[in-house]
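Input sequence (122 aa), recorded before submission:
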Amino acid sequence: QLYLVESGGGLVQAGGSLTLSCAASGSIFSINAMGWYRQAPGKQRELVAAITSGGSTNYADSVKGRSTLSRDNAKNTVYLQMNSLKPEDTAVYYCNVRGYSGYYGRDRFESWGQGTQVTVSS
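Predicted structure, token format:
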């Protein structure tokens, strides 16, 4: 059983900052990648940022330069700091974790968080 606990969403004014966190727990053998996706009303879910176990990061062009993704491997936790927020950043943000579970780490998994709302007012 795998668990993802998200926190940090809320209402913020344009130009403000927000930090989202996602902690993974349960029967985890190893984690390959952790990241955040978002889905705005009427739009498809899209990648915001992701980070591998080795620390390589990938950002959507729309948030590049305004966001920083970091990871605490010991805590299986990923943090997304977003600055200079814009109304178009308004969406439900979902944590995504990929890795291997089970005693021998043979079972590949991909888990999604329940989502946290981020609303940026103009």
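Checked by second reader. The longest strand covers residues 28-39.
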